[in-house]
Write a structure and sequence with these properties.
Length: 222
Amino acid sequence: MVGTGSMCDCYIPLENELQVTRQCLLLIEKYGFGLAIQTKSARILRDLDVLKRINAKTKCVVQTTLTTFDEGVCRKIEPNVSTTFERFEVLEAMREAKIPTVVWISPILPFINDTEENLQGLLDYCIKAKVLGILCFGFGVTLREGNREYFYAKLDEQFPGLKQKYRQQFGNAYICNSPNSKHLMDIFQSKCQQHGILYKTEDIFAYMRKIESKKQQTQLFY
């Protein structure tokens, strides 16, 4: 299995012109590798034909992040990627193509999208799209030096007054967990169990690492 997209999105706008990702996918298909690809962009639908061929030969797992159910808030905190609904449409397209999908719920920003309503909306999308698994490493955000200053500047820009609440609640902590973490985690695990969705990290990564051989039936008189 070849994994890609976790450190840099494979479908940045320049991909429309360069088609580097598509060329990589064609090589993966040619040499019979499996694929686990992660993106926040609906541009991946351009390469659905190749993804389907890879999945027919071995295994293709498409992953995306869902963060904020509210489209308006999504455009504030993720301004340069496909909206949550557009990513849901990607999941739906993969379901129709019988390509397994995994969703990452991250990050959950305290006092912004750490609500039960937000989580329920994201989980409903996952259930409708029949995702294989959902990865969740807790409900919060990590802030290191440099990263914190940028984040606070954006809070001042998009959510005036919220920076002070962060400073009061978290100080200079690296891990900033939502006060609602336990409640949200209970909902998350219960909903996944109820609908047969994988949610344990080790189970999902074990699935994505495992290559599968799908030998096609020999045709008559071949």
